[in-house]
Structures are given as C-alpha cells and as structure tokens.
Design brief:
The complex is a heterodimer of chains A (217) and B (311).
Chain A: H1 6-52, H2 54-69, H3 72-83, H4 87-111, H5 115-123, H6 128-161, H7 170-179, H8 183-212
Helix pairs in contact in A: 1-2, 1-4, 1-6, 1-7, 1-8, 2-4, 3-4, 4-6, 5-6, 6-8, 7-8
Chain B: H1 2-22, E1 36-42, H2 45-61, E2 65-72, H3 75-83, E3 89-94, H4 95-102, H5 114-127, E4 129-131, E5 141-146, H6 147-153, E6 169-173, H7 174-178, H8 184-191, E7 197-201, H9 206-211, E8 217-221, H10 226-229, E9 232-234, E10 247-252, H11 253-258, H12 261-267, H13 275-288, H14 292-302
Parallel strand pairs in B: 1-2, 1-3, 6-7, 6-8
Antiparallel strand pairs in B: 3-10, 4-10, 5-8, 5-9
Helix pairs in contact in B: 2-14, 4-5, 13-14
The chains are: A mainly alpha (217), B alpha/beta (311).
Chain lengths: 217, 311
Amino acid sequence: MAQMNLMQQLIYYYQQNGVYVLSQFTRHFLISIYGVLFAAIIGIPIGIFIAHHSRLSSTVIAIANVIQTIPSLAMLSIIMIGLGLGVNTVIVTVFLYALLPIIKNTYTGMLNVNSSILDSGKGMGMTRWQILRMVELPLSLSVIMAGLRNALVLAIGITAIGTFVGAGGLGDIIIRGTNATNGGAIILAGALPTALMAIISDTVLAWIERRADPTHK
Amino acid sequence: MKKIKKWLLGVVATVASGVLLAGCGFPGLSGTSSDTIRIASQNTTEQQIMAYMIQDMIQHYSKLNTTIINNLGSGTVSFNALKNDQADISAIRYTGTDLTTILGEKVDRNNVKATDKKVADQFNKKYKMTYFPSYGFADTYAFMVTQKTADKYHLKTVSDLKKVSSKLTVGLDQMWLERKGDGYDAFQKLYGYQFGKTYPMQIGLVYDALESGKMDAILGYSTDGRIGSYDLKILKDDKNFFPTYNASAVASNKVLKQHPELKSILNRLNGKISLKTMQGLNYQVDNNLVEPEVVAKQFLEKHNYFEGSDK
C-alpha cells in the first residue's frame, strides 16, 4: 500500500469497497432527507402561520435561531440523552437544524408577496384558502425552495457527525480513516462523496427553485 | 410551475404518510424500527469486523433486521448501551476488561482461567446478559518495542523496561491511563516504575508512531496485524499484570428470549477465529484499505458461513 500514491490508494479503495461506500452513501442521504422532510412538513405551515400572525413571528424565529446556535455535536449529545444511540437521534438533530432556514424562508417568501396582488385576489372574491393556494404559495415557492436547499446542504453536513452516535453514513468512513494507517485515502474516500452529495443536491434544488419562480418562465 | 408544486406536494404527502403508516421506522433506513437487532461496536478495527460478521451471520440464517451502532468510544459505553436497552448484542467484549472495569474486581493472578467463568456468571446474574464462549482469540494489552530498541537495551520482559523507563516516551491507549485494576496506577504498583513521558493516543495510531521512531515503546493490542508486518517485539508480561482478555459476543437475555434463533447463530462463531486469523483480518483493514464490512463478508463467504457447525 505504502508505495501507492494517494490517488492510486483512493481508486484502489473504491475498487475494494465500492458496494459498501454506496450503501453508506444511500444511508447518509436518506438520514438527511428524512430530517429535512420532517422539518418541511412542520416548518412550512409554521412559516405560513407566522406570516399571517406577524406578532408571533419574532418569537418563533428567535427560537429557531437559538436552536441554530447550539453546536451540532452538543445538540447530538443532548438529544442522545433522550433518544439513545442510533439513527433516530441524528434524524431529530437534522430536523431541528433544518427548521430555521425553512421557517425563515417561508416567512420571508410570504411577506414578499406584493400586497396589491393580495388585494386584487380579495377583490375577486377569493377565500383565504384560495389566496394562499393560488397566490401566496406559488409566488413564494422559489424562496421556500431556497430554504429547503439551504436546509438539505446543512443536513448533509450534520449527518456526517452522526457517526458519533452510531448512526452510520459516510461519517463512518471518515472516522475510520482517522484511525487507520495510511488513513489519508480513507478520509478522502468518505469526504469526497459527502461533498459531492451536497453539491449535487444543491444543484438539483437550485434547478427546481428556478423552475418554481413564476417570473422566470 | 403548477406541475412542480403538485409534484412536490405529492412527494411530501406520500413520504409523510408512508412514514406515519409504517409507524415503526423509516423505509430504507435500517435501525429505525423497533424490531431490529442492534449490534453495538466500538471504534476499533476488530470490533467493527466482528460486528459486521455477526450482522452477516444473522442475515444469512434468519430474516431479522439488523443494524450496527458503530464507533462507540469504549467498552463502558457499549456496555451501557446494552444495559439501557439501546443495543442488543455487543460485538466483542473482553473478559479481562469486564472483570476490572464493569465488575470492579481484582485480577486473580494465580487463577487466570477462572476469570472467564466468573465474568460470564456475574453478567448473567447482575445484568441479565449472556456471555458467549470465546471466538477463539484473546486481545491482550502488550508492551511493544522495535527490534532495534530491544537489542539496544536488551529488552525481553516488561520488567526489563525498568532500568530505562525514565528515558522512554511511551504511546498508550487513553483509556488505559484511567482504568482501575489493570490500568497505569496498578501497573506502577506492581512493576514499581513509571515511564518518562506518556502520550495518550488513538490506539490505531500507536503502531505507526513506534515504527517511525516517534515513540520508544507502546502499549498496543496483541491482535493487531501491524505487529507482524512491522516486526515489533512484544515484551513478556513476566509479572502477569494483565488478565486474559478473551473475546466473546455478549447479548442481552431479553433479545435471546425474543429471538431464540440468535443463540445458535452466534454459537456458530465459537472458537472459529484464532489469534492469527484475527491478526490477518485486522491487517486487511488497517493496512490494505479494505473496509471491515468487506473483510467480514469475504471471510464468511470463504468459510461458507460456518454452515453445518452449529450447536
């Protein structure tokens, strides 16, 4: 092994462990996705709600901000006390971190909808539900998507730390690299797919975000 | 635009309802449902190899779901995971370690053989855990030096280190420094000397530190494959300071009751892995860039999953 350079080692590593890396890649991606999806299911309605009840907005966003300031390793440990070791703990952590970008972007997106458009909607006799569904949401969708995009990239980074509570994922490979002889190649073998995953999800969501923006038709 | 919105709503709705309906876990993600066998593994190479081996064996012989809780920091952490029902099986536990750290008993230097039975009995009685018979190897702490150092100071035993101990820089397992019973304090008492400088290190890194001359001596694990490849000299523990650390799987009685088939599956590995075999497997991982998961699978496939060797 020692006579190979880093690049050769990396290629050799993938040849030997390709299937394993792929399974950890999927696991890593799923953990991130589940956390963000839950955050979206909870966060988007909250964002809509506080946009309509602006008195609550500062409190809710402040809470989400506070969550964001807790270091991720500390958060992981705190949640571990309640949920124990394993993958559920990581999903909850990802969920909490994904809340802020999603709530904030939903809130901003909704506020940015031009009030004269809302008024004309009202003038046409639309119900509140219709205005939300046919005016507000479509117009703010691109901003909401930007929030999801932020959240997912953040989530992929946090999931990498999930290895410390035994959740698996690409973080396992990185940590093993730090313990092994010639670990450099193994660290890269874990870190590169993680970065790649973040870049690809970011690009894909950016594309959806552009498509969702009604002004860029 | 409208299509995308509908599509997004659809995805969110399906996944959400899927998760809620499944109730017991996330699809595609092992370890989230309640009927999964959780295997605890520490952050050392052989722990991970054995964890994957157990996982493969369970998947081969039964339809149970399995997951590995990887990278636990110490034997105590993995013990607590089992005790608090956060894990069902511990991939490897070492009798000597459990005797001194978990049970808090003194090492009986005259009757080493009794350790295994004592630990197994106490675990069953006190913690409702079943200690399986040993895999066939013991992973003992061992002081090592390079052949060059050994020749220079004429070192054969741990006692020989005494005359040069104040000059030595020694790399050791961080855990060992704080351990009672078989840790550094007890070591100083029995052997009557201490080292000039000690460096607590990640255990996987001590062998390279020794080989590259950054350390004069190290405290390593006897199962490591690099002992052979670097031609390191193991110093004989002439005062029998360290107990035997026979390696076994440990499972909670609860999971064995729920899934009785686990017992025969785990028993298939009894005595199947000698010290040499383990060194070889470790070497594959530590030096040849093969993942523990792959090494475990290859080993089991080579031996046909120990088919026909149950009971």
